[in-house]
Design goal:
Layout: H1 4-22, E1 35-40, H2 48-63, E2 67-72, H3 78-89, H4 95-119, E3 124-127, E4 134-136, E5 145-148, H5 151-158, E6 162-166, E7 169-171, E8 177-179, H6 185-195, E9 200-205, E10 226-228, H7 229-237, H8 245-253, E11 258-262, E12 270-273, E13 286-302, H9 307-317, E14 323-329, E15 334-342, H10 346-360, E16 363-376, H11 386-396, E17 403-407, E18 410-416, H12 420-430
Parallel strand pairs: 1-2, 1-9, 2-6, 3-6, 9-11, 10-12
Antiparallel strand pairs: 4-5, 7-8, 11-12, 13-15, 13-16, 14-15, 16-18, 17-18
Helix pairs in contact: 2-4, 3-4, 6-8, 7-8, 9-10, 11-12
The structure holds adenosine-5'-diphosphate, aspartic acid (ASP) and magnesium ion.
Length: 439
């Protein structure tokens, strides 16, 4: 018969084990020693040779004493190719079917990487999102992760296996496959890192880390060693495609460090971590560009309380994010409203707008080829003159600013697409972010 104290601890243990089974995302109890979650993006697994190369990094992490979970993207440009294929069959494919199709990309990679690991004499097992109970909401093509049932993953890790998980995919409560938005393997990486209480989430990609700007557009951009979650979140949301915004948001929420590094070598990359006071010494840490924006202008909608709420609620219900909202009230009791959306959302937006205009009156015009250049830095909270420096850099290049928006740590200017890359380079130089020329 157990003594009362022992009985209490048995009860506590049972309670703890029960909680362990529920496995919702917010719980981060210890699961064993040293789990590392590694993610390999599309370019890092683009060919059989690269899959072999990636698998050697995975095996090295295991050999150094870690339990290793690997998240993979579809090979190379597979996701783009599948989207093109779908468009050849239907101009606007049902989102459920598109998810069904796109999820196949990652399923190919998980099997191949598991095979490559086996071929090198190590044990690995691959899982789709559904197989590890990665449950999302029901928003096809932009689903959000709700929970992950980590029991199978833990059991396989404890059996000494390397666990490979398909990124970018999950299932909704009806058992239908969902995908997590472009770049969604980043979200899979961080969510797994959070539920498994990983030491680190390693994001292996085709650049050395996070740079002060996209190095493909700004060759003088510098690699950043450490950047705060907030700065990275802002940079991602205004176009720094190296990490998905949601993934960084998630990493911040669960305090999971992300290490962005190059899959081609072993040198350290960029750590994305909680803000430290020294980060505030720099007014602008980086800049970014969003090139694929469309401006929507609504003309002569009624200027009455509740109209703007009606418009933007309808757009939000279609899961479309809008930005740069401007309203001008006219003398005749109507208003002009403009805002920007990403090109990819226009097909979903147009039917919403048609219905709204039929109900409210007014007209809509769509302008393609808009872009937004932004500067980001936690030090901006204290520094004066950041906006002036940015506007002058654009003026010196004769670039017209069509709208300005800000947050506490970001300033963004809407410019025409034709000016976009020049604008980014000008701003990058103006804030002293260019690396010194090689000696
Ligand atoms: P992966 O397939 O590995 O997920 P992505 O193509 O999604 O790779 O992301 C890496 C790319 O992100 C880089 O090749 C680079 O062009 C782009 N990028 C944009 N902004 C930045 C930035 N600030 N720092 C580094 N890379 C950036
Ligand atoms: N394969 C998906 C994409 O291309 C997900 C990812 O790579 O993160 O967007
Ligand atoms: Mg990516």
């Amino acid at each position: 018969m157990p003594r009362p104290a022992a009985e209490f601890s048995m009860r506590f243990l049972r309670f703890w084990l029960l909680l362990d089974k529920l496995t919702g995302l917010p719980r981060r109890e210890k699961t064993g020693m040293g789990i590392v979650v590694q993610k390999f993006g599309g370019t890092s697994v683009a060919t059989a040779e690269k899959i072999h190369f990636a698998s050697r990094k995975v095996i090295a992490a295991k050999a150094s004493g870690h339990q290793v979970v690997v998240v993979v993207s579809a090979m190379g440009h597979t996701t783009d190719e599948l989207i093109n294929l779908a468009r050849q069959v239907s101009p606007n494919p049902p989102k459920r079917e598109l998810d069904q199709l796109l999820a196949t990309g990652e399923q190919v990679t998980i099997a191949l990487i598991a095979m490559a690991i086996h071929a090198q004499g190590h044990d690995a097992i691959s899982f789709t999102g559904a197989q590890i109970g990665l449950i999302t909401d029901a928003v096809h093509s932009k689903a959000r992760i709700r929970e992950i049932d980590k029991r199978r993953i833990i059991a396989e890790l404890d059996a000494g296996k390397i666990v490979i998980v398909a990124g970018f995919q999950g299932i909704n409560e009806h058992g239908d496959i969902t995908t997590l938005g472009r770049g969604g393997s980043n979200a899979s990486l961080v969510a797994l890192g959070a539920v498994l209480n990983a030491e680190v989430c390693e994001n292996y990609t085709d650049v050395d880390g996070v740079y002060t700007a996209d190095p493909r557009i700004v060759p003088t951009a510098r690699k950043i060693d450490r950047i705060s979650y907030d700065e990275m979140m802002e940079l991602s949301s205004v176009g720094a495609g190296v990490l998905q915004t949601r993934a960084v948001e998630f990493a911040k929420k669960y305090n999971v460090p992300i290490h962005v590094r190059n899959s081609g070598h072993d040198r350290p990359g960029t750590w994305i971590v909680a803000e430290t006071s020294s980060m505030e010494n720099i007014a602008v840490s980086g800049c970014a560009l969003k090139k694929d924006l469309m401006r929507v202008s609504l003309k002569n909608v009624p200027d009455r309380p509740g109209i703007v709420a009606r418009i933007f609620t309808a757009i939000a219900q279609a899961n479309i994010v809008v930005d740069d909202i401007i309203q001008n009230v006219l003398d005749d009791g109507t208003a002009n409203i403009s805002f920007t959306v990403e090109h990819g959302d226009v097909a979903d937006l147009k039917p919403v707008m048609e219905q709204l205009l039929a109900e409210l009156g007014g007209a809509a015009a769509y302008e393609k080829d808009m872009a937004k250049v932004s500067v980001v830095g936690v030090g901006m909270k204290q520094a004066a003159g950041v906006a002036g420096t940015m506007f002058k850099a654009l003026a010196d290049q004769k670039i017209n600013i069509q709208n300005i928006s800000t947050s506490e740590i970001r300033i963004s200017c809407l410019v025409s697409r034709a000016d976009a890359e020049n604008a980014l380079r000008a701003v990058h130089t103006a804030f002293g972010l260019d690396q010194p020329p090689a000696a």
